[in-house]
Design goal:
Radius of gyration of chain A: 21 Å
Radius of gyration of chain B: 23 Å
Number of helices of chain B: 15
CATH architecture of the largest domain in chain B: 3-Layer(aba) Sandwich
Structural class of chain A: alpha/beta
Number of strands of chain A: 11
Shape of chain B: globular
Helix content of chain A: 40-55%
Distance between the termini of chain B: 28 Å
CATH topology of the largest domain in chain B: Vanillyl-alcohol Oxidase, Chain A, domain 3
CATH class of one domain in chain A: Alpha Beta
Largest interface: A-B, 30 and 37 residues
Number of domains of chain B: 3
Largest sheet of chain B: 7 strands, antiparallel
Strand content of chain B: 15-25%
Distance between the termini of chain A: 55 Å
Largest sheet of chain A: 5 strands, mixed
Strand content of chain A: 5-15%
Structural class of chain B: alpha+beta
Oligomer: heterodimer
Shape of chain A: globular
Number of helices of chain A: 23
Strand order of the largest sheet of chain B: 15-12-14-13-17-18-16
CATH topology of one domain in chain A: Rossmann fold
CATH architecture of one domain in chain A: 3-Layer(aba) Sandwich
CATH class of the largest domain in chain B: Alpha Beta
């Protein structure tokens, strides 16, 4: 059931409409039911029993990136995104999951299936991709622009504790699926930098997918095991911080876990305690004097704010500070850096037209900035931006990859 | 209810995507920013004048009610289908057709969002001043039909003052032009300005020509804090009387200061009764002089603290308070009714005092925000629309505010319009003859009465 506190939220909407124009989805579709105000009013009607939760309504619930722009723009302080998320969970039993999501989530919730998939994916994936018709896309992203799987999972490449002599710090590293299986260079960069700064890195064995793609699709029960396991594994007092390199995992660990457990009637205390100690890698790194360890590199770099970092976690300046720290880097702010890239996890293949429109604006801003490199600390944004850049010779990286490249 | 035949015709005109009839779509076009709701029978999204014209031909043939709508940020139910029928929503007809720097005018389609048009003209060093609080949502078409005002009204006037010409579609479907692109034009009746503020009762606007100004070179913001609200009110009257024309002159009362401090911690003193926020703009030399003079006025009227910004960045910092005010107050209670009774500026102080008195007597929570420079009050009435007894007290307080405004030569509504929210007060301001005259004009444009039925014109006491 939807928490009482959230139910009351719908009455705080004064229907002013200030959420309309900032909403990237509304700005593509221009009809009210696609807007945050429209969805809140529909949820209100449903909660009051005046409207049946139809298939069309269910489709509208998923015509949303959960980018949280409405929530931060709402003058009445409505937590629109939380209402949407709770409603998705509420309708799970009625509408279920499409088979594609079922398959994907089964993979993500399991500790054994993922490495298995990595092995076979690695063996046959490239061959399979080569057979895909040229120019074909999954959602908005051409198959040719999907990253290859890591030859070996990142966590399998390191011991559980990466030691340094005379440690100046000690962190737990939540690697997330993307870094572990797709973007190993991000993980290596994180570990390189931290080693360079004299920080010991612990990669707890048995960590699971953060579960965010699963529970944001409404399948909260399915994600419960992941949440509980991660909370148990990472709630340790013998470290300075728990670091995350992925905006999405960070949002899950920092706040979504506690919300979900609470709304499901589970005990949220462990998750809340954990949430307070989780830091995005950029938040952790700004504590150090990086000038000492970096050498100059020549590049014009811009930065894209991931929704899960900017709005979910309130992290805006730290990644920019880090990029500006690299000697020789010319940092340029693109127009609308804080606007969603249009990816939204599975949104981009459920609504390819809307997604492509939003991504098109992002790509335009990137090109106009004149940067040769876009940095962004989110694997989802990275996939989306790279996938929509077309033939443009612009690199898309995680900020830590640039930092690692500039290490002396 | 619309017949299948009519729906088919509409579908053949705009296609399936732009004719929406699902329960979810009807439900989400049943409201604007006012409290009451009315379900339409269908929502259509035209993209061209030709489509609008054809839709109106079908509507007039079948006598179907048509209510135009833009962003849906109206505060009076003006854009709701009070008698059913179709909502003609212009959000998809949203191109900026032309920005002509040589002759300083712009041409837009009705669905263009005001703030987005402003952004575009400012790139060319031009300026479109009308800036209602809803500028980031409201459309140019809505602004024209409601004659929207805003904070810059005191110096720059309202939407009407920038309108040069319109392309309209009459209820019959006929397309007609009014005005033009010249700065002066006295040919015939001024139908352009008649349509402005007509609340969608006369014709549909499909193209808008507006006058643009050169963008002011500099702007300085002043913040003055007062122990006594009277002193703030008197400062406003003195500034206007002295012939200084600030670009904006905003007032916030104690309750707003408190809400702001609770919500945003801006460092405003909690024992202050009022804050004035004043902008002066123009050429750098003039602005410097004016800012100093305004600061002196504030001090001489008893301001306890006056800050004058030194840069555009500092302007913005001072404006944070005003920009956050509505949100900070709105979150105190579920419902927030925004009043807009307006008085001659010399009555500002007594009007504010009267509102506070009305608030106490009726036990209704009211925070006072005002576009003080033009006497445009925005009492924010905080309540919960689910509480019937409380809403009755709110109604009573509103009625008393209106009565007071009338008694000093003010108006029912400075900028929000009448819609259905204030229709019942109309006879207090307009004589039976004036109302009859308006109805006759309506008849000339819309003999069948299919445009925005249930509007203010039809109110019967």
């Amino acid at each position: 059931m939807i928490a009482r506190e959230l139910k009351e939220e719908v009455y705080n909407c004064i229907k002013c409409g200030l959420c309309l124009t900032p909403c990237p989805v509304y700005k593509q579709l221009y009809y009210e039911a696609a807007s945050p105000r429209g969805k809140v009013q529909l949820i209100k009607s449903i909660l009051e029993g005046k409207l049946e939760p139809s298939k069309n309504f269910h489709r509208l619930l998923f015509t949303c990136l959960l980018c949280e722009t409405c929530t931060v723009n709402c003058p009445s302080g409505l937590k629109v995104d939380r209402l949407m998320k709770a409603m998705r969970a509420e309708l799970m039993d009625t509408f279920g999951l499409p088979w594609q999501k079922q398959t994907l989530f089964r993979l993500l919730k399991s500790r054994r299936l993922l490495p298995f998939f990595l092995f076979w994916g690695r063996a046959f994936g490239d061959t399979l991709l080569a057979f895909m018709p040229k120019g074909k896309k999954l959602g908005t992203i051409p198959y040719s622009k999907f990253p290859r799987l890591n030859p070996k999972a990142l966590r399998a490449q390191y011991p559980e504790e990466v030691k340094v002599s005379q440690p100046r710090g000690r962190v737990l590293y939540f690697t997330g699926c993307a870094t572990n299986y797709l973007f190993e260079n991000v993980g290596r960069s994180v570990i390189d930098i931290l080693q360079n700064l004299g920080v010991e890195v612990i990669l707890p064995r048995g960590q699971m997918c953060c579960g965010l793609p699963i529970f944001l699709a409404g399948a909260r029960k399915m994600a419960l095991k992941n949440i509980k396991k991660n909370v148990e594994l990472f709630n340790r007092d013998d470290v300075d911080a728990i670091i995350v390199d992925c905006a999405t995992c960070g949002a899950a660990l920092k706040k979504e876990y506690a919300h979900i457990l609470e709304e499901m009637g589970e005990n949220p205390d462990g998750a809340r305690a954990l949430g307070k100690r989780v830091l995005d890698i950029s938040q952790y790194l700004v504590r150090f004097d990086l000038a000492k360890v970096l050498k100059p590199m020549k590049a014009r770099v811009t930065y894209h704010d991931p929704c899960h970092l900017l709005r979910s976690q309130g992290v805006k300046e730290e990644p920019r500070i880090l990029l500006k720290h690299i000697p020789g880097v010319e940092f340029v702010e693109m127009a609308g850096a804080d606007v969603c890239c249009g990816g939204g996890g599975t949104f981009q293949w459920e609504h390819p037209d809307v997604s492509a429109g939003i991504s098109g604006n992002k790509v335009k801003s990137i090109k106009e900035s004149g940067a040769g490199i876009v940095a962004s600390g989110c694997p989802g944004c990275r996939l989306q931006i790279y996938g929509n850049l077309g033939e443009e010779a612009i690199e898309v990286v995680h900020p830590v990859e640039l930092l690692a490249k500039a290490l002396r | 209810m619309l017949s299948q035949e009519v729906l088919k015709k509409f579908e053949s005109l705009v296609g399936r995507d732009r004719l929406r009839t699902s329960p979810e779509d009807l439900q989400t076009y049943a409201y604007d920013a006012y409290v009451l709701e009315y379900l339409p029978d269908a929502v259509l999204f035209p993209k061209t004048t030709a489509e609008v014209s054809q839709i109106m031909k079908v509507a007039s043939t079948h006598k179907i009610s048509v209510t135009p709508r833009g962003g849906g940020s109206g505060l009076g139910g003006g854009s709701l289908a009070k008698k059913g029928g179709i909502i003609l929503c212009f959000t998809m007809m949203n191109r900026i057709v032309e920005i002509n720097a040589a002759n300083r005018y712009g041409v837009v389609e009705p669905g263009v969002v005001i703030s987005e048009f402003q952004k575009e003209v400012e790139k060319l060093n031009l300026f479109y001043p009308p800036d209602p609080g809803s500028a980031t949502v409201a459309t140019m078409g809505g602004a024209v039909l409601m004659n929207a005002g805003g904070m810059r009204g005191v110096k720059y006037g309202v939407t009407r003052d920038y309108l040069m010409g319109l392309e309209i579609v009459l209820p019959s479907g006929e397309v007609m032009n009014t005005g033009g692109i010249t700065a002066k034009d006295v040919t015939g009746y001024d139908l352009t300005r008649l349509l402005c503020g007509s609340e969608g009762t006369l014709a549909l606007v499909t193209k808008i020509i507006v006058r643009l100004l050169p963008k002011p070179k500099t702007r300085r913001t002043l913040q003055a804090i007062y122990n006594r609200i009277d002193d703030a009110g008197n400062t406003v009257a003195k500034i206007i009387e002295a012939g200084i024309i600030p670009a904006t002159l905003e007032l916030m009362d104690r309750m707003i200061i408190k809400a702001l401090e609770d919500f945003a911690h801006l460092g405003l003193p909690l024992d202050a009764e009022a804050v004035l926020l004043i902008d002066v703009d123009g050429d750098p030399e003039t602005v410097e002089k004016q800012a100093a003079r305004v600061a002196d006025f504030c001090k001489s009227q008893g301001a306890r603290d006056v800050r004058v910004s030194q840069s555009e960045k500092e302007n913005e910092q001072l404006w944070v308070a005003r920009r956050s005010a509505f949100g900070a107050v709105a979150r105190l209670r579920p419902t927030c009714v925004i009043e807009d009774a307006t008085v001659p500026v010399s009555y500002l102080t007594s009007a504010i005092k009267r509102i506070l008195e009305i608030s106490q007597r009726n036990r209704v929570q009211i925070a006072v925000l005002a576009h003080a420079g033009d006497g445009n009050l925005h009492p924010l009435i905080l309540c919960d629309q689910r509480d019937k007894e409380e809403m009755e007290r709110v109604e009573k307080a509103m009625s008393e505010i209106v009565d007071y405004a009338m008694s000093v030569g003010g108006t029912l509504s400075g900028e929000h319009g009448i819609g259905i929210a204030k229709a019942k007060y109309l006879p207090r301001q307009l004589s039976p003859t004036a109302l009859e005259m308006m109805r006759a004009v309506k008849k000339a444009f819309d003999p069948q009465g299919i445009l925005n039925p249930g509007s203010f014109l039809e109110y019967q006491a």
